[in-house]
Amino acid sequence: MTLVYALLGVVLAPFAGILVAGFDRILTAKFQSRTGPPLLQPLYDIAKLWAKEPMIAHRFQPLCVYIYLAAAMVSVALFFAQSDLLLIFFVQAVGAIFLVIGAFLVPSPFSQAGANRELIQILTYEPLIIIVLAGIYLTTGSFNISAIYAMDKPLLINLPLLFIVFGYALTIKLRKSPFDISASHHAHQELVRGVLTEYSGRMLALIELAHLYETILILGLCSLFWTTSIWGMVVLLALTYLIEIVVDNISARMSFRWMLKSVWTTGLALSAINLIWLYSGGRF
Amino acid sequence: MLKKIVEHSQIKSPWLVHYDCGSCNGCDIETLACLTPLYDVERFGVLNIGNPKHADVLIVTGTVNKRNKKVLKQIYDQMPSPKIVIAIGACGLSGGIFREAYNVVGGVDKVIPVDVYVPGCPAKPEAIIDGVVEGLAKLSEIQKAGKPKKEAIAS
Amino acid sequence: MFEILYTSLTLCPIVAALACLILPGKSTRSALVGMTGIILIASSVMLIWNGPVSSTPAFLSSAKFTTFIQIADFALLGLILYFGIKFNNRIISVLSLVQIAVLAAFELFILDGHGAPAGLFCDNLSLIMVLLISIAGSLIVFYALPYMDYHEHHLKLTKTRQPRFFALLLLFIGAMNALVLTNDLLLFYFFFEITTLCSFLLIGHDGNKVSRENSVTALWINSIGGTALLLGTVMIYLQLHTLDIQAVIGKLQGSDAMLIPLGLLCVAGFTKAAQMPFQKWLLGAMVAPTPTSALLHSATMVKAGVYLVIRFAPAFQGTALSTAVAVCGAFTFLSAAALAIGQRNGKKVLAYSTISNLGLILACAGINTHAAITAAILLVIFHAVSKALLFLCMGSIEQHIGSRDIEDMRGLFGEMPKTAMIITMGILTMILPPFGMLLGKWMAIESAAGNLFTLLMLALGSALTVVYWARWAGILMGSDYKGESRPEHLPDMARYPLLTLLGSAIVLSISAPFIYSKMILADFTGTAAYATTNGVMANASGSFAVIPLFMIAIGVFLFALAKSGPGKKGAKIAGPYMSGISGEENGTYVGPMNKITGSVQSNYYLSAFFGEKRLSGVVNATACALILIMIGVSI
Fold first, then answer.
1. Which residues of chain C neighbour B53 with C-beta distances below 8 Å?
2. What is the set of domains in chain B, with CATH numbers?
3. What kind and span of H or E run contains A248?
4. Domain for residue A284, yes or no?
5. Relative to the CA of C497, which of B94, C149, C218, C457 has its CA 20 to 30 Å away?
């Protein structure tokens, strides 16, 4: 049964991801008083890229891209199999690291700088996510997702500050402003898309696909904060994503030094407050 | 089914890279105007992606000269096919008023094969959008025919 | 059977070491060293076969042996005192005099009726340590054979100093094996001091100014540890009237009456394991020839410190000392990882990473639950193998390119494809699931979740670790964009150790659930911390699907590798994007006046955040405070 859920997750996640990303682009366009692309635009983009002539910049690039995609798929599968949260996160990190290594392979200043910045992004969000997961453990007594579903109260009630911390990580992982530092959605703005510069055609299609998986994973993690009712979950996800888009549209890109400093100080302070409260036995 | 989606997608998602071969910026401003809310080419899936390795459509403005023709050619070569080139404005088409200058090679088609010519000085945004749409028809033709990629003319 | 194996594991390398010094000729020495290595590997495997044992061989309980050890103890301390005077280092002289005085007083006045040493004790922890020391140690010694030839050739030595070098390596391995098998605190102290002396002599092997200075640093810092260990031993004997380690642990279990001696033992472990603020000696140790570093960092020396703390962990379970050890270890994990980010010297990155990982292991020992100790032991195993591999690769690279700077290894794949691949794989075994290091880290974080400070530091340290490794792994494989590389010649004696270590890093990682259920679990009583079914390690707080993940990983890796073969047909190769002005050669561009200009790329080292200058002061001060707190809570 677990296996069926996992497979179902892997099959359905890209479609959900396409809808989310398409919705994101339409909403962003609306904010800028534009009409925006059709809802299925991400699908068109990926299909088009897939059909392009294969072109690589280094012989090991495909290796890195396939591993990135596989890691994203496995982490989504583990998520739908309600497995260990920390394990899911570490598996996801494999992909992130291989994306960086792939960018390091090519001696292009843009992809090198992008790779370094991507590492700083990983450095910024990784501890925050580990701490959030530990917060979940302190509330449920287990790192397993199944334990969260066994709770009769939503996690958000006990982990409000950690949810904000998670929001930071979410913004960095989704590459939204002000944290779209390693690879902007718009290449002409920053570093020619930094970490993605040297991937093209089919490789880029696979990366976009993997990114859809990552989006679903990260939204899935977000949904864990309200597991007691479907509507609560939907509202929480919609609100969070809406806030993400608003933040993306109203903020400028900042430097990685600012990101590291501000996110670590704010994030660690917020998590410390929330965790101390949990350790001291506070529960609603 | 999958093949249909791919074919359909080919014309639904043109990503542009815009190279200015020394234009007076008139055509550049008009090109960028297409991305503004007034024209909003993202309706057609157009993105100004700015990286030849990701792009399908190369938009060239301005006169090609002896210095930047290498750059133009290299950017073209780094685009994976199928790809199309749209030359914009009088200068891009033929060299414009600079065509007799000592350092000028001429229009874009002297260096790389051009698929669509958009005249004007500067070309109007409507004309540029029209040119991109024309180009898309060609793009899907190339895709259907499965033509081998075109090599640049001048070396 | 056990006695024979014990002899061949400890006495045989020591005898071989003496023979190395006496017998002339390079080929005799190579044969001798090779034979000893093979004997060590074979006996350690047979010891595993033999299983856990505790016994007292006749010769160990003889009065002659006791007297011999007593004399040797004083001779050893005298030697250290001699070096202290010779190099004019007051700390060494004072500490060794203190040790001589304490030891003399102890043996003359206090030690009564304790004629015979407590014999040997070989549980699964010892077995694992013996296996690591013997196998990784032997592989490093094999690798050293061609390495030292090249090294001496490079230094233009007229008279070879290899007899001394190999004698010390073998002595070191013998002493380590004896150390992990003994059950007598005084014998433990003796071998502990031998490793100190060996490391001092090995670090100073090249005999130049820097190596001499660094070796003296190593000696004085480790003398602190030696003194702490001796004082702890004496205090334990004063209270419990036994030096039998197992008896001591048994008596102390669960009580917090005797924390001071245990705290001193932990300090000894911390100095040996180069924990902050004692890290300086291990960083200095990298001036030694690479096999020395590999030996110090992987299976021996630093692992002696870790072993000491893990061995005594049950004695201070649930006490304030335990928490303090966890916090100190976690702090070292975090701060050493942060310092590693600021480094571009490859050997220094490796050194900081060793310190950092040992911190993680000690943090696990301090958390001191069944799951955490399991994590500690697994980390000891996987760290030893991967780190030996990385140091040996580093040695080959340094000899080939003449630099330790990570930036000089950019595109190493073009120059040394085999080594570059092996070291990249080695780095990946350090940071990625499903490899053992990450399994250990996963266990560590899951068991640390109950301790706020430890958890925060582990979370931050874990992210920092990823950065300095990934950054390094990334630039190694980059090369000419056509992916062509020159063929590389690796001597057989270098290649086989490297491949064996890489192979064992992978195979051991796959068999982690098996290692747990067959080896580690047996040392614990009560319910198992992890259930291992179908290769999944799981308990109430989480699950890690080791073998399923490995199957997926291997499948994906092979598929992806097939997709990226060298002559993959159809894939067009495009040069890097250089704003359209890329030159013919990779990474160059057409600059002003049509000149081909090379682009310079460098990683971020963030010295404004993580530089040694910026962090060292704060880190050392904090670490000193933490150590004082650790001793403070024991009182």
1. 574, 577
2. 12-145 (3.40.50.12280)
3. helix A230-250
4. no
5. C218
